[in-house]
UniProtKB/TrEMBL annotation:
GO molecular function: FMN binding; oxidoreductase activity, acting on the CH-NH group of donors, NAD or NADP as acceptor
Keyword Iron applies: no
Name the record gives this protein: Flavin reductase like domain-containing protein
UniProt record similarity statement: Belongs to the flavoredoxin family.
This protein's UniProt keywords: Flavoprotein
One Pfam family this sequence matches: Flavin_Reduct
Necessary cofactors: FMN
Domain Flavin reductase like: from-to ranges: 12-140
First and last residue of the signal peptide: none
Length: 218
C-alpha cells in the first residue's frame, strides 16, 4: 500500500561534495553540496542561484570537487550554515546562515594547490576532482531557483589507501566510506553519524525516528 505525500525535500541520499571555487578577488570559497551525480568524466551539480559558489562558477569555471568521507562530518557540519556571500540572502538569513569569508579556518580544513585549476584542493578529502564548467542550465522551477552546472573532470586525485593494491585505476568500494546526506541528515555506512545543523536551519522534524537530535550537540 502506498500513500500520496508532499515531502519537504526529495533528498533520498547523495554524497557530500565540498566545492572549491574562485572569488572575484582570487581567494577561494568552499561550500558543502550534495545534489551531484557523475556520468563518464562529467559531473552535474545542482546549486542554488544565490550561492557564492554559483556566482563564482558563472564568472570563473575553475573548481575542485572534494568528496567528503563519513569521518569528516564534523568539518562539513561546521560549514553547514555559512555562505561566502557578504550579503546573506534573505532565505538563508531566515535559516540562521552567516557570512564566513574564511571557510577553511571555520571548518578546520587545510588547502593544498591543484595541478590544473586555480581553486585549491581540500587535503583531508580522500577524493579530489579538478574540474571546469562545461554547460549551465536553469533548473528547479517553480519550487527552487537553481542551476544545473555541468563540469568536466580534468584530473582525479585519490588517497593511495583507497586503491585496490596493484591496481592504479580501481578504487575499492569497501574502503571508500562517503558521507551521505539523506533528507538533510548525515549518514556513513548505514549509520546516522552526526546531528545536522542544516536540518536545524530547515526546521526538519525527525523526533521519534531515531535520528540524532540537535540536543546531542556538545
Ligand atoms: C550537507 C550539505 C549539502 C548541501 N547540498 C546543497 C546542494 O546540493 N545544493 C545547494 O545549492 N546547496 C546545498 N547546501 C547548502 C549550501 O552549502 C549553502 O547554500 C551555502 O550557503 C553555499 O555556500 P556559498 O554561498 O559560499 O556558495 C548543502 C549544505 C550541506 C551542509
Amino acid at each position: 500500500m502506498h500513500k500520496v505525500v508532499q515531502p519537504k525535500a526529495l533528498y533520498f541520499g547523495t554524497p557530500v561534495v565540498l566545492v572549491r571555487s574562485v572569488n572575484e578577488d582570487g581567494a577561494t570559497n568552499l561550500a558543502p553540496m550534495s545534489s551531484a551525480w557523475w556520468v563518464g568524466r562529467s559531473c552535474m551539480l545542482g546549486l542554488d542561484a544565490t550561492s557564492k559558489t554559483t556566482e563564482n562558477l558563472i564568472r570563473d569555471g575553475d573548481c575542485v570537487l572534494n568528496l567528503a568521507s563519513a569521518d569528516m562530518v564534523g568539518a562539513v557540519d561546521r560549514l553547514a550554515l555559512t555562505t561566502g556571500s557578504e550579503e546573506v540572502p534573505e532565505h538563508k538569513a531566515n535559516k540562521g546562515f552567516r557570512y564566513e569569508p574564511d571557510k577553511f579556518s571555520a571548518a578546520g580544513l587545510s588547502p593544498i594547490p591543484s595541478d590544473i585549476v586555480n581553486a585549491e584542493r581540500v587535503a583531508e578529502c580522500s577524493v579530489q576532482l579538478e574540474a571546469k564548467v562545461a554547460e549551465m542550465h536553469v533548473f528547479g522551477a517553480p519550487y527552487a531557483e537553481c542551476y544545473a552546472i555541468e563540469v568536466s573532470v580534468l584530473r582525479t586525485h585519490v588517497a593511495e589507501g583507497l586503491l585496490v593494491p596493484g591496481k592504479e585505476d580501481h578504487i575499492d568500494p569497501v574502503r571508500w566510506d562517503p558521507l551521505i546526506i539523506k533528507f538533510t541528515e548525515f549518514f556513513g555506512g548505514d549509520k546516522n553519524v552526526h546531528p545536522s545543523s542544516l536540518a536545524r536551519g530547515w526546521g526538519m522534524r525527525h523526533e521519534g525516528t531515531g535520528v540524532l537530535q540537535p540536543e546531542a550537540y556538545a
